[in-house]
Amino acid sequence: MFGGDYPAVPTSDVKLQFITQSNILFGRDTSFTRLHRWIDECTSTHQSCSMHTSSADRGSIVRPTRLLDLDPIQQGSESGIRLIETRPDRMYQYACLSHRWDETIQCHQATKHNLPRLLNFFPIKQLPQNFRDAISIARELDIRYLWIDSLCIIQEGDGGVDLIQELGKMGLIYWNAWLTIAAISSPNSSDGCFIKDKWPDLCFSVSNTLNESYFIGARVLDKEGKPQTALDIEQKYPLATRGWAFQEYWLSPRLLQCNYGEFTFRCLESSHCECNSSMAPHPEQPINWLGKQERLSWDLQEIRKHDAWSSIVCTYRSLNLTYPNDVLPAIAGYAQILAPRLKFNYAAGLWEERVATELLWFIDCPSNQLKPRPRDSTAPSWSWASVAMGQDTRCAYNDAQRITKTLLIDGAIQEIHCEPESSDNPFDKLKYGYLKFNTTLYMWYIRWLCLEAKRSGGYKNPFNRFAWDFHFKKPTNIKICAADLEALEIEDTFCQVYFDARVGKEELKNYDIVGQCTSPGRNRCQFAQIHLLHALHDRYQEKTINIFLMLKRIPPIHGKPNCYQRVGLLKTVHMSANSPPWEEMISGTITPCQEEFWLF
Prior knowledge:
By secondary structure, the chain is α+β, with helices and mostly antiparallel strands. Helices cover about 20% and strands about 25% of the residues.
């Protein structure tokens, strides 16, 4: 259709049929015209957006310490702006910039040394393109103030005091912003907010004998179609794969996304894109890979009642962070906003009032794809924040199921303690944290499989994708290598082992090895001692399911004598709803032990 040359004005009457109306992208000016229309609709007709703007907990109490004042300043031939320090007796309507950091940002940061200069004047032309475009957008919308993290927070020179203070109110900074501008398609700070797509939109004009003109256009998609995989998203929308973008997206009452070739806009009641097409090269819902239901407009009673937080965490954990120790800080703002509304207490990424079920997270991937546990993580091992991001995280608890018995209640957990790095921000990084238990542990073994064991048919069932296996007796028709430890005999049962982090031969040195198989060669099965904490018993769809936390004993910490670390989750599935209780199945093989212990 677009391959030939067409006359500017057709010589005969033209009839157009079966062509649906579409907004063709004509450039930056037209994009701003549409944006103004969307915002006018939002501010004049949306009750939820108006209520959010005027609510009592808005900027009258918590505001950024500094903002960029976009009122132009002229010094000689240079046009610039300045940084201001906000006053407690003033209200500020401001926008935020959500962007991806890179190395060049280091040249555009506030420090204790350059702060006096920034408070006076600095040229706009020296800023990276993302910053300059955000300034242009804010000015176009008559927003005088702009918050950019690298320039509005002191990044070095004051011992981290300002950074800790501002991170402590990060959630409210985005929550109270009038608009957030997201440079979602910019892979760095230099590409800007107005990136053109590889294939521009095509349009041409036709007119009929009555001199009525029409514009016809087409959007050219990538040959693969809409982005769907993580790699697609990384390539076209790199900001959307970053952990910090999660709370920036969901906490912002209005969000302007600068996509390839167009704007998309989302507020509390509606969302728009310039192409108005479900076939656009962006998801139908703006960056819906960040989740479809994580909005804080959810009914809070539903969040209290159902396991919504686990869904939020699983979505967040699929994203990536440059610094592993940012896992809790990057979602702290979300929790900070949610906590007073839920009236729940926060503990290392979990809610104390739901800790019995929120402990049942696990990493669902083959063992050879597991990432190591970050060395510098200060989150306790029982928290999902202690393991590497960018992995498929799930919860073994499903509130749609009929739970027969949640076991970590009725005094089993005696104390939940988290020691934050900053006493002013319990949602941020921790020094350490622990759970104190008084309950039953079951000492047993996991088996590192030798080559002979892995070659046998006993390890080719859909529940076992790991080099490790729970040491239980296989069906009699399956041959495995002989072992010097008696196996646990539990009939008609499959066992799924989910480790929290990679456990290879190097990590195996940190376990108590208590036995091996009798197969020849150096690569023998090895048996590592673990302790099972029974967390859930469920009868569901003619099956009996038991969930255990797998613990490893560790040396005393912080003066506590009997300490453990979580290393994974074990799920046993008995193919009958009438299976005997766990205690009966293990009778004579495993001896239960009632203990008071601390889980770090």
